[in-house]
Amino acid sequence: MTAAAHRTETITGAVVLAVAAGFLAWAGGGELFPRGGYEVTASFPDVDGVEIGTEVRLAGVRIGRVSALSLNPETYMADARLTIPEGIVLPADSAALIQSDGLLGGAYIQIQPGGSPDNLAAGDEIEDVQGAVSLLHLMMKFVDSQASAGDAAQ
């Protein structure tokens, strides 16, 4: 093999590795090397569909991730630890809601900022929460209400 052929193979290999690294970064949500931040907690009655790595969004924009989930044995609530970037400051009375990405999509945690002049700090808890809503449970309620309305009409 000539020197030109070796050089071409080396350049081709470098391009393939760069493309593979790009796909890896894209698959990881664009965070090949995650940035630091601060953690806050939120205790939910139900975290169905939420897992470690689930997105935390503010105004529809991803601002963080769920870094840990655990069951609180005293309250029987699911404690979620949310990692928020240092540059994003949330009012102390912000709310955390578990939302669905659609009928078949996953879940994410939506932050609704409050109006408090005080801000959440590392280790603080978001107290205003709303757990996951089960689509199956809602459909069963609808079917049950339709059946009850049909029985009442007869």
Automatic annotation (TrEMBL):
Domain Mce/MlaD: from-to ranges: 37-114
PANTHER family: INTERMEMBRANE PHOSPHOLIPID TRANSPORT SYSTEM BINDING PROTEIN MLAD, INTERMEMBRANE PHOSPHOLIPID TRANSPORT SYSTEM BINDING PROTEIN MLAD-RELATED
UniProt name for this protein: Phospholipid/cholesterol/gamma-HCH transport system substrate-binding protein
